[in-house]
Structures are given as C-alpha cells and as structure tokens.
Design a protein that fits this description.
- The structure is a single chain.
- It is built from 10 helices and 20 strands.
- It has about 350 residues and is of the alpha/beta class.
- The chain has 2 domains: about 190 residues, Quinone Oxidoreductase, Chain A, domain 1 (Alpha-Beta Complex); about 140 residues, Rossmann fold (3-Layer(aba) Sandwich).
- Strands 3, 7, 8, 11, 12, 19 and 20 form a 7-stranded mixed sheet that branches. A 6-stranded parallel sheet has the order 15-14-13-16-17-18, with helices on both faces. The chain has a 3-stranded antiparallel sheet with strand order 2-1-6, covered by helices on one side.
- Helix 6 links the parallel strand 14 and strand 15.
- Helix 4 packs across helix 5.
- The protein is globular and about 60 Å long.
- The two termini are about 20 Å apart.
Length: about 350
C-alpha cells in the first residue's frame, strides 16, 4: 500500500491508501519526488470536471511529475534503480492510426495520468509510487534538480503549441493568459525566434513574471485596461500568431480582430463546453487559421533537455512546495494567482 492524493469529486480531495500493483515485463516502478498542480488538477478539484471530462470514480490527481527509478520489469534495459528521471504522463498505444502517423498525442487509446477522459479513469501521479511503461522514463544526470524537472510536462505543452503555430522566426505573437502554460508558451515562442511577444492576463503578478523572466516584450492587464488591445486592430490586425492559453471565452473572442489576415490562432487552453462561439465569417473572409494544440507529442524529450541544460529556466514559475499530507491546502492556495504561479507537492519527502 501507499499514499496518494485522490479526488472523489468537487472539493473532495483525500489523502488515502491505494494499492501498488505488480510490474509487467516492459514497465518500471518509480518513486515520485515532486508533482506540480496543473490547471486541469484545479478544475477537477474545484468543479469535479475538466471540460467534458467529469470525475465518475475516485481518481489520484497529478501528471507533472519527476522521480527516481525503484524497480525494473524483466524486459527493461538501459535503466537502473536509483536513477533520477523525468516521467512522461502520456502512454499512447503505439498501434492506432494516430500513433502510426506520428501524432501520438491524439492516440485513440491514450492512458494519460490523472485523466477522467476515459472510464475507468487513469490514476495520476500524486502517489508515492507509480508504474509506467519504460518509454515514459527519461533518465537524467544525478545532479538534476527534480523540482525543476517536474516542469517538463507543462513546458512540453508550450513547445507543442509553438510547433502547431509553424515557424515563428521574426514573427509577432500574442499569448492570452499568463498562467504556467501561457508563460511557458511565451518563453518557447521567444526560443523559436519570435521577435515580439505580448502577454495578457488579469493579474499584475503574472504579467510581471511574463515580462521579467519569460520573454514578453510587452504585457497588457485586460482587467485594468479593457481597451488595451484595441490598438492592435488597426490595419486588419497586428499579430502573426496568437496563442489562447487562458481558457476564457472573452480572450478567444478578442483575437479574431487583432490577428492579421492570413494569421493563425492556436487554441491551447480548454474552455468549458458550449462557451466558444467562433466568428466563422471573419475566419473565412480573412483566412485566419484556427488550430488546436492538445497536450504534447514528441516535445517532452526536448523539454527535459532544455531544463537539464538550462536552455529554459523554469525557476521563475516555482511558487512553493507542500507535503503530500497538506495537498488540499496546496490546492486551495494554488488558486491565489496574485501570489502563486505554480505550486508543487513533495510526494515523497525523502526525495525532496
């Protein structure tokens, strides 16, 4: 038995014992060091659902995790107990059409940690031990900071969003929403060569992080300055690419007038069902491309490499760590965006 942070529904998060299962030949048991509280975890906690995915049975939350290898299945090679590792929450089937076409994030049989998108639900990573397929384990040097490493998954989401945008060298970009995903998307856009990155939000604290450390060339608080984006509507729109990372209907609606003719909007945030009407006529007449970005595909390995090498410093989004026993308090605190960007849970304190 082991301890895990298990969601039973809206505002019902319990630290309880769960069963640790046996390994298949191609699987690895890991001890989870840190787990980041994601926006989807927050939705499960506060609403009992993310988009169309509702909690229908007790489910351990968490998918932004790092840890240490504990035990290997009989067929696993290249790993050994004691190795520090990045832990990829995606377990695609590798045989469906999407997987064969190289788009494993769209796998029709995906097992994604801490997701109610299928039933039975896929149990998540806020558990002291976890069993993963060996290809979900990326070993890292012994001196790697496991707290920083746990940001690999959200960084991979930002990198995937940038890949969905196409080449950004010399482009003008706007990112709506400066939560962790928005901030990491902005930083990824700058890494990809965007010459200008404007970030929006309703919290000055988040915008300060965006400007000071995540590559934003300008920020706009759309709550304090509701007209702050109007100037970008001139001459048929200013931005080449927009990333909608807030999951807010109003933010999405604002983009269709400020993206230039022939530009692209990448939807990164997930909106509540039935709340995102699209101005189809404007989309058609201005030939704006509207595409989705869902989780990440092959970008997880790059995210690990960038964190380990220091190519992207994720330290500015780290806002504090709570013990597993205090997970509910962490979830309540994580909603205070005036003081918090990303909170983490030390799942196994001896590894922290």
């Amino acid at each position: 038995m082991m301890l895990a942070a298990v969601c039973h529904g809206k505002k019902d998060l319990r630290i309880e014992e769960v069963v640790d299962r046996a390994l298949a030949s191609d699987e690895v048991r890991v001890a989870v060091a840190y787990g980041g509280i994601c926006g989807s975890d927050m939705h499960y906690y506060h609403r009992g659902a993310v988009g169309d995915f509702a909690v229908r049975e007790p489910m351990a939350l968490g998918h932004e995790i790092s840890g240490v290898v504990v035990e290997l299945g009989s067929a696993v090679t290249g790993l050994k107990p004691g190795m520090k590792a990045a832990l990829d929450p995606s377990r695609p089937c590798r045989v469906c059409r999407a997987c064969r076409e190289g788009r494993a994030n769209l796998c029709s049989n995906m097992l994604f940690l801490g997701s109610a998108g299928r039933f039975p639900h896929v149990q998540g990573g806020f558990a002291q031990r976890l069993v993963l397929r060996s290809d979900q384990i990326i070993p890292v040097p012994d001196d790697t900071d496991l707290l920083k490493l746990s940001v690999a998954e959200p960084l991979s989401v930002g990198l995937h969003a940038v890949n969905r945008a196409g080449p950004l060298m010399g482009k003008r970009v706007i990112v709506t929403g400066s939560g962790p995903i928005g901030l990491l998307t902005a930083r990824s856009a700058r890494l990809a060569g965007a010459i200008e990155v404007v970030c929006t939000d309703v919290e000055d604290a988040a915008l300060k992080v965006a400007h000071d450390t995540m590559g934003a060339t300008r920020t706009v608080n759309v709550a304090a300055d509701p007209e702050g984006l109007i100037e970008f509507e001139a001459d048929g729109g200013y931005f080449d690419v927009a990333f909608e990372a807030s999951g807010a209907q109003s933010a999405l609606a604002s983009l269709f007038k400020i993206v230039r003719r022939g530009g692209r909007i990448v939807q990164v945030g997930m909106l509540p069902p039935g709340t995102a009407p699209i101005p189809v006529n404007g989309l058609q007449s201005r030939e704006i491309e509207f595409v989705g970005a869902f989780r990440a595909n092959d970008e997880f390995g790059l995210a690990v490499e960038l964190i380990v090498s220091g190519g992207i410093d994720v330290t500015p989004i780290l806002s504090g760590t709570y013990r597993l026993a205090d997970a509910q308090a962490a979830f309540e605190r994580a909603g205070d965006r005036s003081r918090v960007v990303k909170l983490h849970i030390a799942v196994n304190e001896e590894l922290a």
